[in-house]
Design a protein that fits this description.
Two copies of one chain form a homodimer. By secondary structure, the first copy, chain A, is an alpha/beta fold. Chain A has 15 helices and eleven strands. Chain A binds a DNA duplex through helix 3. Chains A, B: InterPro entries: NagB/RpiA_transferase-like, SorC_transcr_regulators, Sugar-bd_dom_put.
DNA sequence: CTCTTCAGTGAAACTTTTTTCACATGTATA
DNA sequence: TATACATGTGAAAAAAGTTTCACTGAAGAG
């Protein structure tokens, strides 16, 4: 798309501006263009990733809250990031970084690591640094959201992991929920799908987000549910999902038939992972997080301060 | 110096500005300070390294010129970087990056790598990325410039290499040129100095700048030479120096007595290195570069386009 | 205790950057 | 060939960011 000539000029202008501190007007003279164009080209350089701005700061944690949650649910590890700025993107970025750091501590050669998709996972990928490991396999834990096979969202997440770990990907290019149990069985029997599912089962590490049950869920918006069907689900006590499998606040699975129509790793299987790593962000997800913890679908939790507090409140009010 | 509270606010403001794209005026409202202060704090965040701006671009090379130089002087490798922007800092940065990339290709476990100081070396250090190698030793090839033992310049360069390579440093905390041959011999006999010199001799890789002989040289300014002494040197044909040892355009050493009063690796020793890597930048250094190449003190050259052309001109005009 | 000094601040003046607007150029389409 | 349409430009207007300046309050000196 962008020619090399073009990019060279962008680089030149960016360097004159950011490395040498020239004013845009001086650059305009040098390049014989208007200062307006210089401004526009600098903007383009940002968008094309030629200019990178990074804010460097230590990873902070709220240890007391983390310890309380870890003990209460007998987790392997809990990490609570402080809410420095109350904005989802900022919090998710901090969570993503924390998860990423943790992964680079635990990943080793020959590992199989399963990942799902969601709103938080992209932030893990964004913060993933090159990790030195050999023969790692990345598997997709559950199908994509779009029904038209291969959602770009999940593909990008897997790709990020693959690049950072120098790994081999195993995708699950199927819908996450299908119309009948028979169809789900048939799909799972397909040799490619089956291979990925097997690897997901064997994975030592699984990383996924915790979803909140509600009409704003991606699954609803992607048309996986009729309105009445979803309402029934909510009335039956659904508070959240992991890999598109819905559970109640006590951790029990809501609808066994639905569960059987869902393709991908099961919640049972997650229980047995050495590392079942969940990331969650947002107060409204507190019930979902509590459900996930009570169901033991998670042994390593990454969560923000506000949500962590809300979770503890919920638990304490139950007692 | 800066309190943690203070830094936290800097980080917060930097993130609001660069990650969320808030205007300084909005941030001023949030933090209940004036927009002038926000501007000042952002400036401080830059200076403290909390905000990093990087221009990302591929490493470009002028292959034809490089090949011509490589062949003519029978070098192992020559790398000529294009002059995108005619400013010493920019060119040196490109050179530094090129050297740094090359080093990360060739460095291996148990290596000994000797480095000098100069105006170009800091740019190599700046661009050095973490290199995975074990038990590497970094030695200082020649004494610092200041006569007061331990020049910060060279210390910083060594430190950069040590950090990047996870290496152990061997410093040479002595003046580079002393008053008498006897003193030089005595200093070299000191057990610490001797150890470093030995390691420098054994080093598989040496990295250094090529200096130009002239009254603007750091050595002159540091008071190593009387004016008349230096004039004599120039009249005797000195065009440049490597590790404070002066040579003519044909590569011959200018003053044997001075050479013997110089502490550090000898030019002879550089000739036998597996990798004798020189970096040079600036048209005015062309003669010095030609001398270094003719003397075979270099087998791997990193140079900018303009200087490379000038060198070839010089050689061709001699023929 | 008073005076001086100094770092830090906001308001306002100033500079720099971005956006708007009108126009030009080239390209695809009828 | 004419016509719509997108793309890119500079001049000027508008917005955003920086610097100057005068003032404040705190720390140290007398």
């Amino acid at each position: 798309m962008a020619g090399i000539d073009n990019d060279l000029q962008l680089v030149k202008i960016a360097r004159l501006y950011y490395e040498l501190g020239y004013k845009q007007e001086q650059i305009a003279q040098i390049e014989k263009i208007s200062k307006a164009t210089v401004s526009r080209l600098l903007d383009k350089a940002h968008k094309e990733g030629i200019v990178e701005v990074k804010v460097v700061y230590p990873q902070l944690e709220v240890h007391e809250l983390a310890e309380e949650i870890r003990e209460r649910f007998n987790l392997k590890k809990a990490c609570v990031v402080p809410v420095m700025i109350d904005h989802p993107d900022v919090i998710r970025d901090d969570l993503g970084r924390a998860v990423s750091n943790f992964l680079s501590e635990i990943i080793r050669d020959e590992d199989i690591i399963g990942v799902s998709w969601g709103t938080t996972l992209p932030f893990v990928v964004k913060n993933l640094s090159k990790i030195n490991a050999n023969n790692v396999i990345v598997t997709q834990l559950n199908g994509g959201v779009t029904k038209h096979y291969l959602s770009t969202q999940s593909a990008a997440i897997i790709e990020g992991f693959v690049n950072s770990l120098n790994a081999v990907p195993y995708m699950l290019p199927v819908p996450t929920i299908v119309d009948s149990v028979e169809l789900a069985t048939a799909i799972s029997a397909d040799s490619n799908v089956c291979k990925t599912l097997e690897l997901s089962q064997k994975a030592r590490i699984a990383v996924y987000g915790i979803g909140k049950a509600g009409f704003d869920s991606i699954l609803v918006q992607a048309g996986y549910f009729q309105k009445e069907e979803y309402e029934k689900l909510l009335q039956a006590g659904a508070v959240g999902d992991i890999c598109s499998r819905y559970f109640r606040i006590d951790g029990s699975i809501v609808d066994q038939e639905l569960n059987q129509r869902t393709v991908g790793i099961t919640l049972e299987e997650l229980r047995n992972k050495e590392y079942s790593i969940a990331v969650a962000n947002g107060e409204e997800k507190a019930k979902a997080v509590v459900g996930a913890l009570k169901g033991k679908y998670v042994n390593t939790l990454f969560i923000d301060e506000v949500t962590a507090k809300k979770c503890l409140e919920l638990i304490k009010s139950e007692e």
